[in-house]
Amino acid sequence: MRLLNLVASSALIALIPLASSGAAPDDASGGVSFNMVKEIYDQVKSSYVTPVTDKQLYEGAVKGMLASLDPHSSYMDAKEYKEMMVQTRGEFGGLGMQVTQENGLVKVVSPIDDTPAAKAGMKPNDLILAIDDAPVTEMTLSEAVEKLRGAVGTQVKLTVRRAATDPFQITLTRAEIKVDPVKAQLQGNDVAYLRITNFSERTDVALELGFKAMQAKSGNKLVGVVLDLRNNPGGLLDQAVAVSNDFLDKGDIVSIKGRQAHDNRRFEAQRNRDITHGLPVVVLINGGSASASEIVAGALQDNHRAVLIGTRSFGKGSVQTVLPVRESGGGIRLTTALYYTPSGRSIQATGIVPDVTVEPARIEQLPEAAIQHEGDLRGALRNTGSAGNTPAPATGAKPPATAAKPDAKPDAAKPDAKPEANVPAGTTPLQSGAADVAAFGSEQDYQLVRAVDLLRGVTLFKNMAAQ
Question: Which of the ends of the chain has fewer CB neighbours closer than 10 A, N or C?
Fold first, then answer.
């Protein structure tokens, strides 16, 4: 996975120094050897149609070697390595979406809130077919990402296919992106809504500050917390562990198992770290929740600390280690381990299934004009508000409401309406059918409404049981 203009993957990563493994050459090479590579190298140098430099061939060989392993292992030159280090601090430039490669196409894993990609309506699982009319099937992932980069303020035209829709074109304007990792707001006056957009170096601190601000704003009357991890592509391992611990006082968080013994680690919750002091928690996930997001969701689900609502997560259960390459000043991102939830689950390629599946949907307000109430009936008794009083006949009772015609259409948006907001002029509006990032945290966010209703229902039940 690559974060556009960032080079760094939002996959779960650990930053550690390069160490020699001391491993012996693999004897079962099937005839492939360094001598064979040298022979091909000499042939290319002497016979290729145009001259090529040693740097081109060496870097090409390294990139091909790593790309043959899995989608998340890759080589970074010095410039890319520097940009990756910037990404972990949460400030960078570009389009603001996480991508991977699938069947020769560039696939969107998740757009990041408040970035050009999110504002233009890009959605998880969108397939990019062409960049400025150049087919991506003729590019490597690195080449595609490079074409998507550019100076702030310049535009790039994408040809996109979504689900079963016909391909359409959309133009995005590149921008400098400074991602605030946490957004906090109150739902009503009693539920704290905390949305984490990525796991950068500042995420845990920002989460604690956001919760405290919402707690104070509610007058210490919070009944629960909604932790929104939808479209969160992941990030740093230590931040995923810290955020999990913000809701746990005990139990395992995640375990990591690799080929080498030094890659095996286990993380446990620290005592008395739950910043909510036991408030009910609902976690929102979807197909754009990946890597570090899945660690948090899995930890809270397996420790029975939260109810997960939404749709199945992305399913990235591998850990990448970033290793500096001293000679080039670059680095390699290498898959070194798999992670497991507290119950021992590997979510690699399967994802985390929510406890309550709630598909994204629009909220429509339907007219109630056709519904009659008791007070609408002619001669209905008035409510006197007291058990000892005799109800009196209503005076001036309302006439029955006029029933709506069968073909009458509500003023609310049609279910198949296509969102027009945040679509650049001259582009085809994006089709509906996937999570609307612009609606996250709003009154139209159906999954959030369901989460808030659940928290208030739990509180109501507890209060009834206590009486």
Answer: C
User: How many helices (H) does the chain have, and how many strands (E)?
Assistant: 9, 21
Active site residue 55: no
Token readout for 436 is 């609307």
pLDDT tens-digit profile of 136-183? 998 888 788 878 877 788 899 999 999 878 999 999 999 987 778 999
Q: Rounded to whole angstroms, what are the CA distances from 448 to 54, 250, 439, 440, 443? A: 55, 27, 10, 8, 8
Q: Which of 291, 313, 318, 432 is catalytic?
A: 291
**E strand map for 326-371:** 330-340, 356-357
- Antiparallel, parallel or unpaired: β 175-178 and 91-94: antiparallel
pLDDT at 66 over 70: yes
Catalytic residue among 113, 302, 436, 445: 302
- Give the model's pLDDT for residue 100: 83
Using CA atoms in the order 72, 77, 80, 86, what is the torsion angle rounded to 10 degrees? 100
Q: What are phi and psi of 114, to 5 degrees?
A: 60, 30
CATH of the domain at 110: 2.30.42.10
Any catalytic annotation for residue 291? yes
Q: Which two tokens stand for residue 213?
A: 């601000």
Residue 453: CB atoms within 10 Å? 12
Q: What is the pLDDT of residues 13-39, one digit of tens each?
A: 665 444 444 444 555 556 678 899 999
Higher pLDDT, 13 or 456: 456
Beta bridge partners, 186, equal: 192
Domain count, the chain: 2
The torsion defined by the Cα of 289, 291, 297 and 300, in degrees rounded to 10, comes to -170
Residues 10, 316, 436, 445: which is the catalytic one?
316
Asked whether the beta carbons of 267 and 341 are under 8 A apart, the reply is no
114 and 194 fall within a common domain: no
Residue 449 placed within a domain: no
Counting every residue written for the chain, the total comes to 467
In the residue annotation, 255 being an active-site residue is answered as no
Is 428 part of any domain? no
